[in-house]
Amino acid sequence: MTAEHLPILQVAVPLALAPVCLLIGNRHLVWLLATAGGLFTFVCAAFLMVSVFNQGPLTYYLGGWEAPWGIALAIDLLSAFILLLVGLVATLTLIWGKASIENEIPGEQLSLFYCMFMLAVTGALGIVATGDAFNVFVFLEISSLSSYAMIAMGRDRRALTSSFQYLVMGTIGATFILIAIGLLYMMTGTLNMADLAARLPAVRETTTVLAAFAFLTVGVSLKIALLPLHQWLPNAYTYAPSVVSAFLSATSTKVSLYLLIRFFYTVFGADFVFRDHGLQYILMPLSLIAIFAASGIAIFQKDIKRMLAYSSIAQIGYMTLGIALVSQSGLAATIITMFNHGLIKGALFLAIGGIFLRTGTSQLAKLGGIGRTMPWTMGAVVIGGCGLIGVPLTAGFVAKWYLIVAALEGAAWVVASAIVLTSLLTVVYVWRTVEILYFKTPGDSVRDIDEVPMSMLIPTWLMVAMVIWLGIDTTLTVGLAEQAAAMLFDVTP
Amino acid sequence: MMTGTLILTSMALPAVGGCLVALAGRWPNIREAITLVTATSLFLVILGLPGASGVFTIAEPAPGFSLAFHIEPLGYVFACLASFLWIVTSIYAIGYMRAHNEPNQTRFYAWFAVAIGSVMGIAFAANMLTLFVFYEALTLATWPLVTHSQTDQARRSGQLYLGILIGTSMVLLLLSIALVWQITGSVDFKAGGVFTEPVSDTILTIVYALFIFGVGKAALMPFHGWLPAAMVAPTPVSALLHAVAVVKAGVFTILKGTVYLFGLDNLSDSGAAEMLLPVAALTIILGSVIAMRQDNLKARLAYSTVSQLSYIVVGALVANTLGVIAASLHMVMHAFGKITLFFCAGGIMVASHKTEISTMGGLGRQMPITMAAFTIGAIAIIGLPPMGVIWSKWYLIAGSIEGQYWWLIGVFAISTLLNIAYLLPIPLQGLMSSPAADDHPGWHEAPIPCLIAMGITATGCVALFFFAPAIAQYLSSGLAPTGSGDQP
């Protein structure tokens, strides 16, 4: 009975929990509630995944009202996959985050913070679950606004300016998306994605639809932080509270990228996007520049969180690169990278968050020699770093391998070479960090600190274990990604 | 299934041993006992393995894309070699590390064990992907060993080490593997190679060149710089890893790929391999020439290794059965000779604190046993009877003639002369010239465990002269089905 309501439950429950969090003053209780909410979304996502896997895509009509009037939620393999990632990361970061949140957020704002976190989870899940274009905008705003608030809660005062920067950029993006949705509605008279897909071909030649397409692409690219629209991301990730950096880096850009794939393949159709308007010729160079430039910039960062942020921009380049290859295997590679990179970056930010909790800094120069005082946390950093490089037996290798093979399949030799070449840059910035963290003689700030508590180590290492597990057993990631990509290619008109 | 379990044991055993070593760090005697027990049991496990087996798949990340192991002659010989020399090196390391008062010895022994475990993975890999996994694991596991002293120089060497090894493998080798996968749909090691469909000579040449240069561990010029840099590591590391395990893993990868991935017939028919022969020949000569100019003993030995590794590469590149047998034999022979030389170099460093050759005059009177071992090792590398190397050189020349690369014989001849020129003066001046005035007169030998280790490997150099035909026969038994095609 309840099983069929899973799509809405997993969005509604965190939404309902958000105001409840606000009412609870006890810091243990509010954490427990939020964590339970996160766990609930994860369990829902897992059930949805099984259901979609066995019975195919499902559509849920809110309140039983059919499509043109009611609001639809549509879950297919791709959305179930991303829901799973969001649920998983939300749960793990919340379990991990208790000590870190209480350390970084002032006591009186704790309830507020958990409320915002729940809203951010709601927004991310909602964007992925919905089958309605306008709802996309609504959930996008929910997730963005709560993110702005959470980033602003960072201990460093620069968190305020970075939050404001993100707010300005994010609002421009959201406005563009809204304009696009409005234009589409004007041309087709519907907001339901399936109906949009059915009616758009009739008007695909019009300038209005083209304008909608352009607004949407730029708007979503802003949220993805595709170079050159990435300026908000490094500051946001650097100055946000650790738990927020971890959650956002693992999910928010992935969710926005999901949106791009959804609109490209389901709503507009691959033919319209790539054959008629040749978007790949813009996307490909931008992705390549993103990979090279962001990796190069990452090498020179003094702050480890900022370095990881630039690394994220580079990884986003890999993901859009897969899309720009315009092939089923390229899209599959993108989906694999989305999931695997989410886990890798999540694990890294959790580990760095642990370091921040103990030392109060993420400046590389002040962390020399920390490998001796926090061996387990540093082990996680090294394995996560190996994942970023794409060392075999980590999830990062699987993602890179499929991307290279997809590029070679499309005879894109230059692209394949570029992909392997950039792993060199990744080696440089990862190993430079490892060197500093292990080599330097420990300074005052790191000499007398303890390893982080088990409550943080276990979630961190769970993520690390998954990074390794998904590098060995890829039935989940590769199998699902290939099926999801196949489905997306089938629905193209 | 028994065999499968044993193969896995050969990888798990060193890893577990490494963990135990890390746990027992507080008690040096127990720690080193664990190392010795692990090394010995590993060797016994390897001896217990059959000489050939089917494929055992551990995990299959994607269809046709698996972590799998098998036993075939090349890998078996390599595994025997590495595991046996690990025992000897462990004995040596106990003497060396204690006498040298090295810090962080626990870390040293632990990572050493992990590195050996990776070598076993390379030796038994049944496809290129598995091999690549352990190849990278070996690079990462040896980084803490190279940077052991944690000085600035060690850090820089570590950067060069990782930069070249990871760089070549992640860029060239990975691209080559992906291309093979893309063209043939398989990266499994198969008799005759995976290129069953005809493929254009140009493409095969490109892919093969990417492969050969991608294996940075084989130290083919211009990707050889990491090897001299790695000499900053403690001598047992230079001895086992940078004269045997790591570099031999490199040339082993080349051999295995040449025989089982690309296929000898394909390579000789398309001319893909012979394009690279000049590079290998140049490395042989240049390596020797640079070695002559080194005054630091370990650096000279390192460049000598660079040069000798290319003998093995040449054996692969002539692309016929004789060449492969020669290469595999040379892998073994050179290992024994070079490890002896490194043992001696380390012994000299510990006992008399000398690292530069020009200061070693008259050393033969203070360290006669070490110098005797050094002489045997030097003769072995040069390739005079009764040393095993004579056999591998013999096969190498036979292989070159079969492939009608007459000019290679000239290369070997010049290189042998160069070997004599840079190796023999060391023991000679040790005996002839008188020691410097401030040296202590009388015996001043290396620690006993070091001497034992030198004795074992020096004896090995001679013993291999008698065993070489048997090894060659075992190797050719495994190669016969593949190589029969290119017999004239």
Spell out the key features of this protein.
A: 493 residues, two-stranded antiparallel sheet, B: 488 residues, mainly alpha, globular, disordered C terminus
Question: What this model shows, in words?
Answer:
The complex is a heterodimer of chains A (493) and B (488). Chain A has 493 residues and is mainly α. Chain A has a domain of 215 residues. Chain A is built from 21 helices and two strands. Chain A has a two-stranded antiparallel ribbon with strand order 1-2. Chain A is globular, with a radius of gyration of 21 Å. With 488 residues, chain B is an all-alpha fold. Chain B has one domain. Helix content of chain B is 73%, strand content 2%. Chain B contains 19 helices and two strands. A two-stranded antiparallel ribbon of chain B has the order 1-2. In chain B, a hairpin with a 2-residue loop joins strand 1 and strand 2. In chain B, helix 1 runs antiparallel to helix 2 and helix 4 runs antiparallel to helix 5. Chain B starts with a helix and ends in a 5-residue tail after the last helix. The relative contact order of chain B is 0.10. The C terminus of chain B is likely disordered. Classes of the chains: A mainly alpha (493), B mainly alpha (488). Chains A and B meet through helix 17 and helix 18 of A and strand 1, helix 5 and helix 6 of B.
Would you summarize the structure shown here?
The complex is a heterodimer of chains A (493) and B (488). With 493 residues, chain A is an all-alpha fold.
Number of strands of chain A: 2
H and E string of chain A: HHEEHHHHHHHHHHHHHHHHHHH
Largest interface: A-B, 29 and 28 residues
Uncertain runs of chain A are none
Task: Please outline the major beta sheet of chain A.
Answer: 2 strands, antiparallel
Shape summary of chain A: globular
Strand-pairing-aware structural class of chain B? mainly alpha
